[in-house]
Every structure is written in C-alpha cells, then in structure tokens.
From TrEMBL:
Basic and acidic residues compositional bias, start-end: 263-274
CDD domains in alphabetical order: MPN_eIF3h
Domain spans labelled MPN: 21-154
A Pfam family recorded for this sequence: eIF3h_C
Lineage: Eukaryota, Viridiplantae, Streptophyta, Embryophyta, Tracheophyta
Name of the molecule in the record: MPN domain-containing protein
Keyword annotations of the record: Cytoplasm, Initiation factor, Protein biosynthesis
UniProt region (Disordered), positions on chain: 261-287
Length: 333
C-alpha cells in the first residue's frame, strides 16, 4: 500500500507525454476573432486551462494589447497579464496559464523569437503549447489552427547552446525534430452542442458548399511563392556562411601544417647542433586559435519554413485540380 503523497510524487515523476490539446469552442472563436480583427498585424494572447495527464485542456484565453512603443511592451505586458489573471480569479474563471496563441502569415512562424518564448514559458510551466492561427487561409475554407511544442531533444540542445555539425550528428538531430505538432480536439458542452444543432439549416446545400468550389487561389499561391523565394535566398546566405567558414578552416589548417613543418625542420637543425628543440605547439600563435563554427539553428528554421510553404503550395494545387475535374464532370453531364 502507498500513501497519497507517494502516489502523487510517482505520478509527477512519470508524467505521461502530451497526446492531445482539448480546446473549448468559445476559446477557438476568441482566438479567430482577435487574429482576424488585427490582420495582417501579428497578435498574441494568453491560453488558460488545465494540464490533466496526457491532455492539455484550454478552456479560456484573453488577448494581449497591441502597442506601438516597443520600449514599454515588456513591462506593460507583464502588468496587464497579472491584472487579467487577478480579475479572472475573482470571477471564478480558470486562470492557470498553459501557453499562448499567436497569429501568423502563411505559416511563417518558425523563428528564433518563438523558440525563446517557449524557453521562457518552460522555466515556470512544466508543459505548455503555442496555438498558431493563420487568418489568411480562412478565405480558402480552412481552419488553420495548430498546436505546437518544442521537442525534448531540441530543448536539451538549445540549453547547451551547441548547434555545431558534430553535435547534431552525434544526437542524430535534423530540422524536422525542432517542433512537435499536437493534435487539437475542439470540445463543447452538451448545451452548446444542442444549440448548434438547432441552428443547423434543413437545406441540403449551403452557401459554404458553393464557396468550396471557388477555384481562384492565385493570390494565395503568389504570396506563398514570394515567401518561398525569400526563404530560399535566406537559406543560400546561410550556406554561404558555412562555405566561408570551411574555406577559412582549410586555410588555417594549411597554415598550421606549414608552421609545423618549418618548426620540425628547425628542431632537426637544433638537435644536430646539440641544442634543446623548440615546442611544436604554440597556443599564442593566431593560426592555432580555433575558428568558431556558425550555428545551424537558423538554417534549420529556414528549412522548416521552406517545407511548410512547399506543403501549402502542394495542398492548394491538389485541391484546385480536384475542383477542375469536378467542374469538368459537371459540364459534361
């Protein structure tokens, strides 16, 4: 038999991995409303809920105010958050922080700022998620809502601050291992579900069904291509940094070999003359100073964005072909 405290301590030690993010329908509507009202400006907000085993429940949220003065954002944002949490606690509303949400443009959210925000949250919250919403996809009839978290292997590497090629090969780490997408489950109370059922129309075809046949996605594809080209340029610049590093490393190794050969020749002459040989290592020599290897984190994030844009282009193009074949079949009939 175990005591209650022993059971709790064991459960905390072997906490199950996060499997699903259960979010209330009202919280989803709040996130969509906030992001669409300020689009294309990027906005953020706080997620409130409860961490229950392998399920992270998001029951409420509130937006962060948008300010123009960057110097006062950090202090005012913290005070605003604390005041909101106090007010919610007074009216008996869930006030446990489980993460944050933010809007994005065409899925370009893989940035160093997002990773730093995750690490700041991890200092105070055991498990947290970031809900990403893309209002630009709403015109295509897509609810672009996803829940992300950092992988444990990436957080270990990030805390160590070592993103060299040797360390990444040792950990068998790739650009796909930075983020983990958690499935989202939208939950509503029985009363809300009954109300939504009453609101459903009896018409077999709604206006939304007709809108799904709209095949004009040229602006969406153009914007994706522009973002993709920009990412390819950024990736090319990152590759140039590594090429410059390897050129300097090869040049340094050649200088070291030349210096060692000269020192060995000199030592052979000193031995012949009966003198003490000079050391073959000279840390004070600039050519023996190690050249720092550039971090591969930025190139990994850019590769993530390239993969995201390619996936969006592929998905939209596939949907357009389906619509074209459907329209062709309707015309033939």
């Amino acid at each position: 038999a175990r005591s209650f405290l022993q059971a709790i301590s064991k459960d905390e030690a072997v906490a199950p991995p996060l499997r699903v993010v259960q979010i209330e329908g009202l919280a989803v509507l709040k996130i969509i409303k906030h992001c669409k009202e300020f689009a294309p400006t990027l906005v953020t907000g706080q997620l409130l809920g409860l961490d229950v085993g392998s399920v992270l429940e998001v029951t409420n949220c509130f937006p962060f105010p948008v300010r123009d003065d960057d110097e006062e954002i950090e202090a005012d944002g913290a005070n605003y958050q604390l005041e909101m949490m106090r007010c919610l606690r007074e009216v008996n509303v869930d006030n446990n922080t489980v993460g944050w949400y933010q809007s994005t443009v065409l899925g370009s959210y893989q940035t160093v700022e997002l990773i730093e925000t995750f690490m700041n949250y991890q200092e105070n919250i055991k498990r947290c998620v970031c809900i990403i919403y893309d209002p630009s996809k709403a015109d295509l009839g897509v609810l672009a809502l996803k829940a992300l978290k950092l992988s444990d292997s990436f957080m270990e590497l990030y805390r160590g601050g070592n993103f060299t090629g040797e360390k990444l090969r040792e950990k068998n780490f790739s650009w796909m291992d930075i983020f983990e997408e958690i499935p989202i489950k939208v939950s509503n109370s029985a009363l809300v579900s009954a109300f939504m059922t009453e609101l459903e129309t009896d018409a077999p075809v709604s206006q939304g069904d007709y809108d799904r046949l709209h095949s004009s996605t040229t602006p969406f594809l153009e914007n994706n291509m522009e973002f993709l080209i920009k990412c390819m340029d950024d990736l090319s610049m990152e590759q140039q940094k590594f090429q410059y590093y390897y050129r300097n490393l090869s040049r340094q190794q050649a200088q070291q070999q030349a210096w060692l050969q000269k020192r060995r020749t000199e030592n052979m002459a000193r031995r012949s003359a009966g003198e003490e040989p000079l050391p073959e290592e000279d840390p004070s020599n600039p050519i023996f100073k190690p050249i720092p290897e550039p971090s591969r984190l930025e190139s990994f994030l850019i590769t993530n964005q390239v993969s995201n844009f390619c996936g969006q282009i592929n998905g939209v193009a596939g949907q357009n072909f389906s619509r074209l074949y459907l329209t062709k079949a309707l015309h033939e009939n």
